[in-house]
Amino acid sequence: MKSTAKKTGVVLGVIAVFVLLIYLMNRMTGVESYADKYAGVDLLAEVDGLDREGTYSQYIASYSDAGHPATDVDINVCSYASGKNISVYQQYEGEAGALYTGDGSTVTWNVEVPEAGFYNVYLEYMTIGSRGVAVERAIYINGESPFTSAANLTFKRQWTDKGKVITDNQGNQIRPSQIEVYKWQSAYCKDDMGYMQEPYQFYFKKGNNALTLAAINEPMVLRKLALTAVKEEKTYIEYRKSQPEMKKPLTGFQLKIQGEDSSMRSEPSLYAKYDRSSPTTEPNSVTKTVLNYTGGEAWNGAGQWIEWNFRVPEDGYYHITVKGRQNYSRGSISSRSLLIDGEIPFKEVKTISFDYENDWDVKTLSDQEGNPYEFYLKAGSHTIRLEATLGGMGDILKELEESTYRLNQIYRKLLVYTGAAPDKYRDYNLGQLYPDVIKAMGLESKRLYKIIDDVVAYTGQKAEKIATAQTLAQQLEMFEERPDKITVNFIDFKNNITSLGTAILNMRETKLDVDYLMVSSGNVSISADKASILDKAWHEVKSFAASFFVDYNAVGNVYSKDEDKDSVVKVWIATGRDQGTILKTMVDDTFTLESGIKVNVEIVEAGALLNAVVAGRGPNVVLSVGADQPVNYALRNAVEDLTQFEDHKEVLNSFYKSAYRAYEFNDGLYAIPETQTYNVMFYRKDIMKELNLEVPNTWEELIHMLPTIQGNNMEVGIPTTASTTAPDLSVFYTLLYQNGSDVYDEKALKTIIDNEAGVKAFNTYTSFFTDYGMPKDYDFVSRFRSGQMPLGIANYSSYNTLMVSAPEIRGLWDFTLIPGTEKKDTAGNRIIDRSDYSTGTCTMMIKTKDENVKQNAWQFMKWWAQPDTQVRFGRELEALLGSSARYATANKDAFRQLAWSADNVEVLGEQWKSTVGFREVAGGYYTGRHITNAVRKVINKGEDPRETILEYSMTINEELKKKRIEFGLPNE
User: Fold this and answer.
1) pLDDT band at residue 804 using 50, 70 and 90 as cut-offs
2) Contact, 311 vs 500, CB < 8 A?
3) d(Cα 806, Cα 782) in Å, to the nearest integer?
4) How far apart are CA 453 and CA 558, in angstroms?
5) Does residue 16 surpass a pLDDT of 60?
6) CA 707 to CA 954: how far, in whole Å?
7) Total Cβ atoms within 10 A of residue 613
């Protein structure tokens, strides 16, 4: 009896645990609804001062009574009213009458509109060979921008393979490089963020209207421009009724189109890729690199498309199947629009969804009941295009981005009163002082709860990415009930807003792999193409076995030591596999073919170079070396002096003096510049306008505006020495150069930071922190996007990070030249010295006694430094890794051809001319270390700046003297 009771108890206990687990899992998945929290609340209500001005939704609402005329209005592109930087072509690529619009162009047409209302703006264009980035235009109607995003209209380019796939000497396939295709394209003016699938609707009054297109980036040629009627797309039923009936159905036709065989794409990064992870990927190999799918990480943004050509033998109805895989983001859906011959045939294929799944999903395009759609195709050639779209997530993300903007506004309003780190023990009476803000917090909480429910409804689960929205919703709900809790959690509140912005960025990604597409007749059975457990197990066994004898790190053609030993150049690259793969592809298809010199590219860790050189097993050429390394190796006779090559000066013509100053020593040159970076000044246009401030031209002007900025509890960011691993002295060196001095004397025997100019620069730099209270440790991107830091000096590469990670402030910020020091030139005229510290990476040649290898290595270095090579490398790197990885080439000719807008090129080019390179000397590592110590001593201990820098100058000079003696260099 006791035994039975005991067993019963165990069973009941197991059941209880099981039920508890089910309950907890349901809680974790968050399938519960928050509808009761926002029921009956007007979520569209606006709060003064918090909502963004000039949005598209506000624009549409302002013409709520306007209709949608059914007629189109054609515009003769060549009959413009006014314009600049434009040209009329009587004949262009087979078109009679076309209009060239260059960089910086504007063109206005007078358009007679027969009926007032909303129209789509449609155009047909062709891109021009330029920097290879998307064309950008702004549209104005009757002299005004209708809404803010009308200033960011993008138009895609077209790319294809330059040649056929080739196979290297290891049996691995190498994808061809990408070239642009210049063909006429059609497009509507639409949301470049992809939040809206439909084209923008523009209101035109009856009668004469002025329509203006202004070039933001890149030239293009127009052949057609029209205002078109806003039309509803056909449903599948309407589409099917509009197509002819076939007397005899098609039978027995099946055409498989491999994903890697795409004919055209909108981005050069959407090329064929290889996959070894699944046994069902076609074709398949665990030992060789076989191109067998397309898409992947790079196919992640709305509007990107891939297109395939195919032929069908006869008129009729066909089914279309896609073998795709979305194994990138659990809880997310990747969507694609289907276009046949450039058109979406019916509404239902405007959003084709692929749920998260580890394995491939063979999806025959069908209705909700599983009945395959029938696509009517005429005999002959056709195209299938899959275009990335956000689908139902677009509206959700748009609301989430607007919410992030409002939350940052709320944060800034409170920041003005409480500061960034409020006193936890003080009662700020925020509920009484800011009742509207507290009310806005409650409203925003309810909006976030609604967004969470929308995401769950769309994806079927509460994904990790939306968890931050839930945290913020709960936090805002608490703040509304207990305003006294705001200051206690103020820092967390700001961090959660930043996390929400990051979540939006991740949720915008819509990655997808495509193995193949299938076009088939209705009676053909489509296999699920799933691998069995045994297939997967066997695949893993083969992969494991192959790992013992296949060098997966080999890149491109690999030449053995015994094969043409004297002519093979060994090149090391320390930046990563993606960079190494791009480099080796370029070497194999360009450099080796043109020069006959064979090159082995090896991907290594940066720290491996010193040990390898000491052991005599180093490379012949090493790329991406830090600026401080060439002179250090030269002092130890470990690198080649490049002045031995007669044409070295020709190579340097593509660089500013500042780019290679760090690589010169004792009349020698020990490296060629590769990348170069420097500071610019970033500013928030909206906040500067709000504070009635102009962008400062000099440090004095910057200091004069500090009371206004800091009086609103905001900050100005100056690079600091706070980091223990990478202290940033760039602004100190900048001030030193602007004051007409340098770090070392002309002979590099000693430091001269102890002269009057050096002391003045040091005093000014440390006073930013001691007298003017600038922050010593901060995350610039985070504070800039929140508005806490509306002005800051930062490396120009921060531009790329902000463009990618802060979409909610797009159009609200810019960058310009750094502040300068006012001087008078020899004629007594007032000038502003904007000298700017710069640094970078370089390419150097390791010492060798083999003259043949030395000459071949020099040929490689010259090829690598030339503009065409740098442009291609930079474009392919950005295409692969995105705009946040934009290549900071030191080649000034190549830089102008990378993906910067014309305005950005102008500002960066102007600042670049004023850059000053940092000289490297024997023992130079001691200089930065002790200047950092001096700065910290003044800031942290309140020491006198003059006495401190004079003291450390003596310490630096003592070390420089020791090092010069050690290396046999004169001290006089």
Assistant:
1) confident
2) no
3) 9
4) 54
5) no
6) 37
7) 18
Length reported for the chain: 972
DSSP lists the bridge partners of residue 665 as: 668
Q: Phi/psi at 935 (nearest 5 deg)?
A: -60, -45
* Contact call for residues 308 and 257 (beta carbons, < 8 A): yes
C-alpha 186/C-alpha 223 separation (Å) is: 10
DSSP one-letter code for 587: I
Please, what's the largest Cα pairwise distance for the chain? Answer: 112
Task: Say how far apart CA 342 and CA 109 lie, in whole Å.
Answer: 28
The residue type found at 250 is L
Confidence category of residue 566, pLDDT binned at 50, 70, 90: low
Output 602-607 pairs: Cβ under 8 A, ≥24 positions apart.
602/555, 602/570, 602/571, 602/572, 602/573, 603/553, 603/555, 603/572, 603/573, 603/574, 603/576, 603/577, 604/572, 604/573, 604/574, 605/574, 606/574
- Give the position of tokens 């960079």: 579
When pLDDT is averaged across residues 583-599 and rounded to a whole number, the result is 87
Please name the residue ranges forming H helices in 806-924: 851-865, 867-881, 892-895, 902-913
* Helix locations, 348-434, DSSP H: 393-418, 430-433
Q: What is the pLDDT of residue 29?
A: 46
Adjacency order of strands within the sheet including 264-265:
178-180, 159-161, 264-265, 305-312, 380-389, 333-340, 352-355
Closest CA to 789 of 810, 813, 811: 813
pLDDT at 247: 82
Distance CA 476, CA 480 (A): 6
pLDDT score recorded for residue 895: 93
Report the amino acid identity of residue 419: G
Q: Give the mean pLDDT of the chain.
A: 89
CA distance 593 to 598: 9
Q: Could you report the per-residue pLDDT of 813-867, keeping only the tens digit for each?
A: 999 999 999 988 777 788 999 999 999 999 999 999 889 999 999 999 999 999 9
Residue with tokens 């995350």: 779
Q: For residue 115, is pLDDT > 80?
A: yes
- The enclosing H or E element of 451 equals helix 435-459
- Output the pLDDT for position 398: 92
